[in-house]
Amino acid sequence: MEKWILKYFTLIRVMIALIIGVAVTILMIYLISEYPGESLKYFFTGPLASKGRLFNIFEMAAPMIFCGVAIAVSFQADQFNLGAEGSFVIAAAVGTAFAVSTNMPAFIHIPLVLIVAGVTGAVWSLVPGILKAKWKASELVSSLMMNYVAFYFSLFLINSYFRDKDAGFLVSLRLPETALFAQFIPGTRMHFGIILAVIVAIAAYYFLYHTTSGYEFRQTGYNKKFARFGGINIIKVIIMSQVLLGFIAGVGGMSEVMGIHGRFLWQAPHGYGWDGIIVAIIGRSHPILIIFSSLLLAYLRVGGQVLNLMGDVPAELVNVIQALIILLITAEAFLGQWKYRITRRQAEKEEAAK
Amino acid sequence: MNELFSSIFSVNFGFAILRVMTPLLFPAMGIAVSTMAGSQNIAMEGSMLIAAFFGVIVGAFTGSLWLALLAGIAAGVLLCMILGYFHLKLKADIFLSAVALNMFASGMTIFLLFMITGDKGSTSSLNSPVFPNLTIPLINKIPVLGGILSGHNILTYVALISVFLFYILMFKTPFGLRIRAVGQNPHAAESVGINVNRTKMYALMLSGALAALGGLYLSMGYVSWFSRDMTAGRGFIAIAAATLGGMMPLGTMLSSLFFALVSAVAIYIASLNIPSELIQLIPYLVTVVALAVFSGRAIKRKKEKEIEADKELETEKDE
Amino acid sequence: MSNNILEMNEIFKVYPEGVIANRNVSMDVQENSIHALVGENGAGKSTLMKVLFGITPFQGGSIVYKGQEVSFSNPREAIAAGIGMVHQHLMLAPDLTVAENLILGMEPRKGKFFLDSVEAEKICRDASEKYGLAVPPEKKIKDLPIGVRQRVEILKALARNAEILILDEPTAVLTPQETEVLFKTLDGLKGAGKTIIFITHKLSEVTRVADRITVMRDAKDITTRGMEGLDEEKIASLMVGRDIRTERIAPPDSIGAAKLSVRDLRYTDADGVEALKGVDLDIRAGEILGIAGVEGNGQSELAEIIAGLISPESGTVTLDGESLLNLTPREVRESGIAHIPEDRMENGVAEVATIEENLIVDRYYKDKYSSRGRLNWKFITDKSKDLIERFNILAKNSKSNVGFLSGGNIQKVVVARELTSNPEVIIASQPTRGVDIGSEELIHNLLKEARDEGKGVFLISADLDEVLKLSNRVIVFYDGQITAHFEDASKVKDVDLGPYMLGLKKEEAASGKMDS
């Protein structure tokens, strides 16, 4: 039993963090709500109560999956690039500009727009990548800064050239029908982008664990010296990981426009990038696990929304809980005492057996 | 265009720059302090937010400015102590933990905002005190300069003074010396008996206090209420400012000034046809460029040192 | 003896992995003497001092300091008691000045809160004068050469009233001139009443400054005595001589032509130390060329240059006539070089990766392991299982993490990978360090096999038994140069090698060339 615990210790630690998160949620709802029983029901069962709400989870999870997978690919190569947000938004802006200015049948238009967006995102992420590869400049700072540049530049692009003058708010022109994802389940906003997100996650998984390049990423992430020693080209890995991050996040951004909104409408950073970081951490940078952690986070968010709407507890409760969960997960020494004791006991057992 | 120039070179504009600079300078110094100790604290955003909130709440309910000040600082410091605990004791990654705490602060403040005021937008329903503006005698009589420098909120003057204090603390006191030693080589510090973790914790607390002052200024000076996510990324801009300023007091102040300048220009330029968004992205872009130049120079300097060392060896051999 | 300032009695120290570093070691140090602690790498001398200084705990024995039994649980306590240590890796804050580093932790104050930097510089100057160690108080550490930095470190200990000063391999990073300055300093310190323990393997230094000496070997102390009547040769034989006869493997059947040739190789490291001063050697097909030498005399750098990990200042390295310089590590590998690195955890493996992943790092892109970018895990797993069996790696299955294996098994993973990469030349750096006896045997057999298959094996080892057991030809490295070349290793005894390893003797124009 204990051997098994040691082997899967990290996974167990994550599960315990999640359980604590849920427990604290329940506790807080209990303390705050006038009618805790009802509130708990709203939070935990609300998301599943109606078709609309259920699919809301999937809709919300899509951009999380995109950004989470993008960041995970970068994390696996040990690059701490937080630029998913920037790539997401600028790709959406450029993609929107392209979609709105061009005319072609849907079966060409859609993939082309996505590719344009992806490439934009990839090029955007190149900046922190090259700075890191060439001059060892912190990709954390440069990517954070590029997020702001991306945001303001996107606003500039859309507001100056692609603004919908008829709309009440500052939004872009509506995308032509040929560049939209149909919402194929009536009563919900389910669109192809969600499927795409899952496909991308699976593709990323395949890339990381079944291709030679993915192998190079991971070994570089595990031990850079070892990777170099074995002959892997580290520079190539660093740059490629950033490019992939940007591409995936870019496709995600465009997908969100094409599937949910039909236009570029963000006037303030939405925080998709931060969501991506959360699900990447909970999902331990594993693309398939990220699908699940995104669904989990989306479920919690929708639950929070329902609670907010129907109950008397604000939805921001979820933000508080997700922070707690992340803290517990990144605390390597969390439960460290327990692990040490088990390790010692195992070592003693093995000594005795000799 | 003429209008623009006359606006920019006006006394009001100069005044505005200092106003805008205050909530950037405080967290930027927080970053500089924590970086000097070797534990860069990017939870400035969260600390500012949480201080801004608690300052307003305590101020509104007790009517006391002092208690508000205390509460705000305590909140900011506490957040950073949690960061310290998770990073130093539980070995959590300091960046990820800071990211988590920023999210926590954002969510928690809106959460409590709603619980207390029933409003998720702002505390405008509450009557919260503000820190006073000060007119500096004598200075305010100086033409032009007087208009720029006098009449600011007291916290703006505190920010400017704290740059000086930061310098004194870091470079003229044993406490500052130890912080720098810990940041440069923790082994060296340990070998002389300094408790590295405790020192880092102090630095984190100090950075929390600085961020708190920035947050308090926002909700009790710049404006007189707390509104959700009112820090608007200033805590992150602070990272850029501190980086650009080389983590040194004067440099940080100058780069904060620069960021404030650009932000202020953007506000003024909105009236013109130059898109404000382009102006707003300039500081960030400049930081990226500066970062590249900075890091590039560091690498070049290292290579030069190696060549120097070779030359030294050659000349030594000849001796 | 009543004038012993320090007595270490029957110290027993074992590391968590089971390695016994000190086996009932005793050493007494007289007050006001310069006491040399000598031994080869791995003899246990650094550990003994770490135990004294409180860096690491010990399991048996006692320490008596100034007549009292003591046991320091951390360096702070040792420092407070008057023991100072200057480590090999200096513990200074690079961006602070000399004076600031000196007074760190005991800063002189102006009023209650302010640093009195004038006083700090004065303290620095006074100490500098008192002990005859010239240091510039206002300069930053990062702007000073390493010899001066070391002086600062020594001054740091003295300024904290160290009565015993422990120096760990102090001259490793010094030029000959700086070394002489250091010795004069040590003489001066002795004159001022201090006691000095210095760890070294350079015998010329021992005879130059030491009054007394402790020789350690294989975690035991051999002797502690005065220097009267001892000369370098005698010390060398104490250090290196063994009662264990070295079995040797059968000599090679046929040796081919030179495969790898190194000519006039020079390398200066990041600290400005000249690690290789013009090395020439050849490795022929079907032989094992052993490099004997205490670690830190240039062997590591030689290995890394040949493997393509660092670039030399000048010189050539050719394999079958083609230059190996300025190639990427992958290109070097593809040319036919395999490398068992001396630090397996740092370079040899990725701890958190699986055994399979570790086994394929040099070949994952090749035919059958992958096709068109897609990894063929079935093939990889089969091959890995095969290697695990062949190389006797004790693991549950090929997908377990390398980090869970014992040191010996981890090394076997490295060896398995390197020896099956189809190399022409194998560089084996400290191949059996930290490895259990069984695995050691296995690795030795594998190297012999490789040799018999016509490969050239380059064996770098601080373990003389190993070198003499396996090599048919031996060269000795000292101070970045080859000091001896024994073409027929079967006639060589370890005591023969000792003097060359320790810099006592040097063959004229020695090189590893085999021009024939």
Describe the fold and architecture.
The complex is a heterotrimer of chains A (354), B (319) and C (516). Chain A has 354 residues and is mostly helical. Chain A has one domain: Orthogonal Bundle (ABC transporter involved in vitamin B12 uptake, BtuC). Chain A is 77% helix and 0% strand. In chain A, helix 2 packs antiparallel against helix 14, helix 5 runs parallel beside helix 7 and helix 8 runs antiparallel to helix 13. Chain A is globular, with a radius of gyration of 22 Å. Chain B has two domains: 273 residues, ABC transporter involved in vitamin B12 uptake, BtuC; 43 residues. The model of chain B has no long low-confidence stretch (mean pLDDT 87). In chain B, helix 7 packs across helix 8. Helices cover 76% and strands 0% of the residues of chain B. With 516 residues, chain C is an alpha/beta fold. Chain C folds into three domains: 237 residues, 3-Layer(aba) Sandwich (Rossmann fold); 181 residues, Rossmann fold, CATH 3.40.50.300; 74 residues, no CATH class. In chain C, strand 4 and strand 5 form a beta hairpin. In chain C, helix 8 packs across helix 17. The longest helix of chain C is centred in the middle third of the chain and has 16 residues. Chains A and B meet through helix 6, helix 7, helix 12 and helix 14 of A and helix 5, helix 11 and helix 13 of B.
